[in-house]
Amino acid sequence: MKNTLTAAFLLAASLLGQAATAGELHLFSREDFRGQRVVIADGAAHNFTDFGFNDRASSIVVRSGAWELCEHKDFQGHCVVFERGEYPDLRRFNNNFSSAREIERHRDRGQGYAYGRDERDERWREERRDERREERRYQRERGDAVELFNDVGMRGRRVAVSHDVRTLRDIGFNDNANSLVINYGTWEVCEHGDYGGQCRVYGPGRYPDLQDFIDRISSIRRIR
């Protein structure tokens, strides 16, 4: 696969001089195991920023071992445990991991989740159904989160967005936004797909003229 990086972080040997059990974790920058790939083998990655992959994981494969992935560096913040298997869509954890380490199986930190291979698929289906129901209810109550317009002053063609969009080509609005309205949430807009290139952050409000960012938005995601 193209654009492959390898980050190998070795665990310390035990007091008896025995090496720790080797595990292997593959991170991908896009869903369904596409995009840039990073391999973490034999230990832990304290800060994904070290190899340019902070908050970029969208799918993972655990080749061996059980891995704890956390939203902040040094295994801080909310953490999730993934056991051996393939995870093509990280759902609410998408682009949210900054560190990872191999752990003992079924370790309980009082937060996060441990997915076994047998129960993983059904658990994922249930959680995704719940998330979709909650998202639909939330949107009905509050309306569209973001409104993009292809002319200044909130005029012209309008496109509504209420969830992360990795490329506005998918909705026929790439490099078309001239003004926008944020009804709720804090959103990051970027000039390239997959939240690449120069980005801007907008909170709730009306932005009738994007000025030097006119016709430059290609992706958008909620960050708060």
Description of the molecule:
The longest helix is centred in the middle third of the chain and has 26 residues, at 117-142. The chain folds into 2 domains: 4-133, Crystallins (Gamma-B Crystallin, domain 1), CATH 2.60.20; 146-222, Sandwich (Gamma-B Crystallin, domain 1), CATH 2.60.20. The chain has 224 residues and is mainly beta. The protein has 1 helix and 17 strands. The chain starts with a strand and ends with a strand. The strands form 4 sheets. Strands 1-3-2-5-8 form a 5-stranded mixed beta sheet, with no helix packed on it. A 5-stranded mixed beta sheet has the order 4-9-6-7-10.
The tally of beta strands, per DSSP, is 17
CATH architecture of the largest domain: Sandwich
Would you tell me the structural class of the helices and strands? Answer: mainly beta
How many structural domains in the coordinates?
2
Number of helices: 1
Which segments are poorly predicted (pLDDT under 50) over 5 or more consecutive residues?
1-21, 106-120
Spatial arrangement of strands, main beta sheet = 1-3-2-5-8
Described by strand count, sense and barrel closure, the largest sheet is: 5 strands, mixed
